[in-house]
Amino acid sequence: MASKTKNTMADSVKQLEQIQDGFETLQILNEEGEVVNKAAMPDLADEQLQELMKRMVYTRILDQRSISLNRQGRLGFYAPTAGQEASQLASQFALEKEDFILPGYRDVPQMIWHGLPLYQAFLFSRGHFHGNQIPEGVNVISPQIIIGAQYIQAAGVALGMKKRGAQSVAITYTGDGGASQGDFYEGINFAGAYKAPAIFIVQNNRFAISTPVEKQSAAKTIAQKAVAAGIPGVQVDGMDPLAVYVAVREARERAVNGEGPTLIETLTYRYGPHTMAGDDPTRYRTADLDNEWEKKDPLVRFRKFLESKGIWNEEMENEVIEKAKDDIKDAIKKADEQPKQKVTDLMSNMYEEMPNHLQEQYEIYTEKESK
Amino acid sequence: MAQMTMIQAITDALRVELRNDPNVLVFGEDVGVNGGVFRATEGLQAEFGEERVFDTPLAESGIGGLAIGLGLQGYRPVMEIQFFGFVYEVMDAVAGQMARMRYRSGGTYTSPVTIRSPFGGGVHTPEMHADSLEGLVAQQPGLKVVIPSTPYDAKGLLISAIRDNDPVVYLEHMKLYRSFRQEVPEEEYTIPLGVADVKREGTDLSIITYGAMVHESLKAAEELEKEGHSVEVIDLRTIMPFDIDTIIASIEKTGRAMVVQEAQKQAGIAAQIVAEINDRAILNLEAPVLRVAAPDTVYPFSQAETVWLPNYKDVIETAKKVLTF
């Protein structure tokens, strides 16, 4: 290493600037749905492009219906997703079935498209254990409430895959606020040290509840935090489904080829509140900012792009909307039909073999429940 | 049979399980080529390779997350926290995550993790090495907490802990690592979790204890014997779930009991045991159930250990109060 003689401080500042400037935003579709980066275009067939659009439209409807069902008291905990469809669904679209998703609490859509039945997602929202009983062969775990915990766990899942010689990846999501947690850093650093096949996504929607991203860190990008772990970091336009897809697909390829993890920052926005538990974004966000980001809506630009290719129209979109509404109605009905939880159910799920103290309590509650 | 120290019995148990089950992985800070800071994993990496026994970056929380993730992929992780005073760094992974894994997934996923960690006083360690924090983990539904006091128990309990399909915190008292040798079978054997062991039979008083205090209690019992008192010493071995049946059976015989722990009085698990005895055997009691525990201060500066840590003299003093109540 070259030794420094003078102007050490000035050199350090320059070095920082060079690093920060090294993280340019990857974009393929602009707000008008025009391809601005032909070289990076993913190799997707028309049917795949249509499928991605269907999922995004479906999920927007799911968000609208979930908010309204929550307001009617027919859903419980709900973290709105509108605005993040490209970030959430185009990233999941780049996965294979054998890939394992460790979602945060806002990442229910990825789980659904990876195979979690919709009625179980609703049961998760309501607070019923059956919502978390993931069907065999669906490689997801229920949404993580402790921000950052999913990151260290993802490093472990990825190392497990590597040890098994599997051609799959662990993918996990957090938000811009989450990138301030210790577990965020430990997760990417462990995966880096073990060269484990993990994809770490930070969905930077600019706000952690009311705290703007500028108050989380002096770092200009979140993607550059990858440097601390010695792994590649990519910043993408998180409102651009094609850019998100390409970034994840490439990270996946590197991972399954044994080249280690990648950190991907998606620049996105949530149009709704933080959660439905009384958060009011007008307290901390301006209408101007909302308007600016509504122009970037991932559905708008992708619709324009597909229409320009002649593979999307209003009729197709309405079909998806109707299908979504029907599915949601059926799923809520199925969630309603789920038997109520009993204390004995909760006890049965604690250990493989019930210890004596729990067995005693089990008998007491069995008696209570029989009355 | 071989004469083993507790640390040798632990290494032996790890070797047995690494041989038995290809899913067993041993990892932590300096457990690989170095063989662990106490030599608990000595020779294991050489025998089983870096894929099975490996070092981690210096981050307890990350180690906990690694164990959870590996558990989700069908492995059976045996992770080490170098000293249990560092558990605060990994409290979420242990108590907030792996303890809840089976419950929160409705039985879909488990965390078959064993957390090995040294603790305990009397060897003049620096800050945050010797603290008795078993009370914290004993309060987390979903965990089991094991504390052996002999080489024989250490091996059988560790094999059981590793084979258990739910998370087990296995705490190793540093003072007991090499303080004495005992006959330990070379072949594999298990000791069921949640089952106490009567280390000494008696008819006048039941002492319920665990960890290094088992030996202080045995020493006290010998002294008390000279004065004509027959003392029964129950080594809990597993402090959560603890073996209430053995405790009550003993009290039905003796009519008097006390609980001895190294942790501060406001910590540990003595209060929980006293409460269970009061619930179940009050009519058998000739005297209140008293506790021997450390003062409610922060763990002592190392030079103050001798005046602070409970020892056999404290046990004798309290035993006499119970016996003469």
UniProtKB/TrEMBL annotation, chain A:
GO BP annotations listed: branched-chain amino acid catabolic process
EC number: 1.2.4.1
Catalytically driven reaction(s): N(6)-[(R)-lipoyl]-L-lysyl-[protein] + pyruvate + H(+) = N(6)-[(R)-S(8)-acetyldihydrolipoyl]-L-lysyl-[protein] + CO2
Keywords recorded for this protein, A-Z: Oxidoreductase, Pyruvate, Thiamine pyrophosphate
Keyword DNA-binding: no
Single GO MF descriptor: pyruvate dehydrogenase (acetyl-transferring) activity
Span of domain Dehydrogenase E1 component: 53-343
Domain of life of the native organism: Bacteria
Cofactor: thiamine diphosphate
Oligomeric and partner information: Heterodimer of an alpha and a beta chain.
Summary of the function given for this chain in its UniProt record: The pyruvate dehydrogenase complex catalyzes the overall conversion of pyruvate to acetyl-CoA and CO(2). It contains multiple copies of three enzymatic components: pyruvate dehydrogenase (E1), dihydrolipoamide acetyltransferase (E2) and lipoamide dehydrogenase (E3).
NCBIfam families with a match to the protein in the record: PDH_E1_alph_x
Protein name listed in UniProt: Pyruvate dehydrogenase E1 component subunit alpha
Lineage: Bacteria, Bacillati, Bacillota, Bacilli, Bacillales
Automatic annotation (TrEMBL), chain B:
Cofactor(s) named in the record: thiamine diphosphate
Ranges where the Transketolase-like pyrimidine-binding domain occurs: 4-179
GO molecular function list: oxidoreductase activity
Record keywords, A-Z: Oxidoreductase, Thiamine pyrophosphate
Pfam families: Transket_pyr, Transketolase_C
Entry superkingdom: Bacteria
CDD domains, A to Z: TPP_PYR_E1-PDHc-beta_like
Protein name: 2-oxoisovalerate dehydrogenase
Native species: Mesobacillus campisalis
